[in-house]
Amino acid sequence: MIRARVSRQVFVIVAIASSACALGAQAARAPAPSPLYQPRTVKQAYAKGTRSPDGRPGPRYWQNRARYAMTVTVTPPERTVRGTEEIVYVNASPDTLQRLAIKLFLNIHKPGAPRNGGASPNYLTDGVRIERFTVNGAAQSWGNDATVFTNRIVPLPAPVAPNDSVRLGFEWSYDVSREANREGMTDPTTFYLAYFYPRVAVYDDLDGWDTMDFTDTQEFYSDFNDYDVTVRAPANFVVWGTGTLVNPAEVLQSEPLRRYQASLIADTVVHIATSADFTARNVTAQQPLSSWRFAARNIPDVAFNVSDHYVWDASSAVVDSTTNRRASVQAAYNETAADFRHMVRFGQDAVRWFSQRWPGTPYPYEKTTVVQGYADMEYPMMVNDGSTPDTTFSRFVAEHEIAHTWFPFHMGINETRYGFMDEGWATALEFLRNEAKMGPARATAFFKQFRVENWIRDPSPLEDLPIITPQDVLKGVAYGNNAYGKAALGYLAAKDLLGDVMFRRTLHAFIDRWNGKHPIPWDYFNTVNDVAKQNLNWFWDAWFFRNAYIDVGIAAARKTASGYTVTLDNIGGMPAPVDLVITYADGTTETRHQTPRMWASNTKRATISVATGKPVRSISLAGGIFMDADSRNDAWTPAQPAARR
Ligand SMILES: [Zn+2]
Known about the structure:
alpha+beta, six-stranded mixed beta sheet, 14 helices
């Protein structure tokens, strides 16, 4: 998700000093830092061997999975969606399961559901109606849902032993919410279906069943499953969705089919279905209901968009230069949305850039489809974004959501509890992408305004909670800034600390070790320590585990035989990089970049040697995106100005 859609007139050019020079003497060699705080669940995982203290999955790592086969019927403008589903849930855990946790996320729409925000009449529905529930083919009572909302514990008639499986059947229906957000009715005949099917919650090696409520702030936590989904929709409705469209020849007329197939290997944008095509009923098979069948393997979720008038553009991009594998890039939108006419191009650029540069591993799916809606939200192979009059902003939002393909989907992150491994990474990748696309100065100005200022200018203790705080209990600014800006700055500070080559090596090791699994923050921190062969716990601890913010001040500076010694205090606690901007008596200036390494031996105080033969008029601090909470302590001038000497 993009979060905080504030101030779009943000592309102000701000010049910042960014030249990096060789630095002076660094801090003395650090004593071994203390171990990071570990919850007891993490200690138990190490003891059981499901995770390793070096950051790898342990020799006894396991995770459960399922196969979902479902048929969903959606007939706009009728708002009722009906589904049947069979889930084969495989228990790979060493535990015998006496019960299951079932997620019914759309019960967030029920009156009385616990949620972090208010609910308008158009948002409310009567939630998910479970009309039939079977276990291994035998009908079971579903019971009363009056006070059970997004998470329901279901006892099993017989336990599921390790390495055994259970077959669940659901018939359900729900009414699409009139007020669209992450899902719902975008217009009377455009429905976005997400989180719409009953699913088995994650059962993992740390917490057992995920029983966290969905309260509309946090995001999700999903197993890697196989999906076979048939969406039945009336003639002239196109269905876009996660996974391979298995039967395009059955649902499309011959000309759109030809265009669709051409788009899969095209570099140019193909208009598969235009408004004129819809008006002439030239797009879909002309039968009362068509069955659009999608298949996806080893993926955390599926989402679909259904519309009878959204135009459909597509092209493709090479996302793996070693195999020349292409990903399809599609867009579906109201023809009046001018920004979306560029969306396939934006998507092509994004999947290429993220594949090649940062994170620099190939886009892991066969396609992405950017759909116009109101969510600014990511789904596997799908993006749902609002249209804006600022095309540059629209590009930025689409790229952020596409970056989520790696974090959380490819990496299987528990977004509900550790949103900073999801939003923090997408936000860091967003900055790196903008830096390449618009240049460091504009990217820095935008990032400061959109991601940092609201946090760093707010002295509330809510802003200083440790990033590691389980995010399922947070809301408001305490949730948002921990998940997005503070965490992104932490990852970018680690990049500055390690340098690009080593940072990339550690990031790729983390992706290699954990894609398709469920990494937790300790797995990331320990992987970096392991691969870089550096104990960076002093850095992780100060940035992610403490009540902290960024405030670096100049405590003192003194003249030495070889130049100056500058003493910096880390008042806010976060070990941020900083530039020393030195203004000489002759009016020239020089910028000397200090990485967070300066705080390695003492996270509270650092001493920097500035070798120079020239008299200094002033020394000041510039943090760039690492904005400083108190600028009053950021400059030093000699007691007797050098110019008068
Ligand atoms: Zn996001």
